[in-house]
Amino acid sequence: MKFVDEYRNAALAKQYARAIAKRVTQPWTIMEICGGQTHSIVKYGIDELLPPEITLIHGPGCPVCVTPIRLIDQAIAIAALPDVIFCSFGDMLRVPGTQKDLLTVKAAGGDVRIVYSPLDCLKLAQANPDKQVVFFAVGFETTAPATAMAAYQAYQQEIENFSMVVSHVLVPPAMEALLSSPDCLVQGFLAAGHVCTVMGYAEYEPIAQKYQVPVIVTGFEPIDILQGIYLCVKQLEARQAFCENQYTRSVQPKGNLTAQQLLQEVFEVVPRQWRGIGEISGSGLGLREKYAKIDALKRFYPLNYSSPESGCSPCISGQIMLGHKKPHDCPAFGTLCKPEHPLGAPMVSSEGACAAYYRYRSQLIAS
Description:
The chain has helices spanning 10-23, 35-43, 46-49, 63-66, 69-79, 102-107, 118-127, 144-156, 171-179, 193-199, 204-211, 222-237, 257-266, 296-299, 317-321, 353-366, and strands spanning 28-32, 54-58, 84-88, 111-114, 132-139, 162-169, 188-192, 215-218, 243-245, 267-274, 278-287. The protein is of the alpha/beta class. The protein has two domains: 1-311, HypD, alpha/beta domain 2 (Rossmann fold); 317-366, no CATH class. The chain starts with 9 loop residues before the first helix and ends with a helix.
């Protein structure tokens, strides 16, 4: 299939791996920021094709994984209320809060539904005027425009029984938080191609210059990722640091200006708590005052719980998302923590590093 098979060509992948091995002269550590890239790396064994000098580490690029426990607890409390239809993408239903998850609420009789677009929630609200329809808005800049469109249409159409719990996060501030840490291991980044399709890559250029790390905008297929790694290694070996676009078939320098205008209309930049990491300034999107009526946390106040972000659990998801550890370094991996009974969000989400290792590497690790 065109645009799929050609980016999964095994012979071409081996050629890129050989080109990387020929170029590299010393150890380098590269972080892929996106969970979708992590799954491709683990699924296709891309890391195993690379020379031993190249270490790939997995970043906090799974928005489900970084959603804070406090917000999940608030969502669970709202979902359990009578006359509420609570809507979410599928991954969020099994992400553990302090005591339970959204799937538990559903099993107890709560009206919790999986949707594929926030716009579906508007149809639900119109079809159920006696119910409060709430959408759990999670994601990076990639999914934020669809959330913004739902908020915009709800405002324009005066749909009074629709609201949302907003937990959108932004990639560049997270990268800066990682790079400014004294424990940072990252020497180069593979940036998420779908985020840059929306936002462009101008925001990454000052990060590359300030911290002297190459930032390669990269796609998600094996050849994309190997090309991205090659470009990153090429810069590292030449002592260069700038933003480069591998994913030219999707990403333009300025991104999608229409989507950006909609984001500006609906959202403002706010601080955001990241599960396992802590608060990162300017790393989230919150509804502007104009759209305050659509803010579910304000509508259902005082459901404003304070939940611990860590405890006695052996889960080390925070260290995994920071790139300090790999999933198989966790003492709970594959034993106390499995997809059916996860201790941490990275074992739940389709973009979580732990889920990728459990699906594609657990038998290899066990042996």
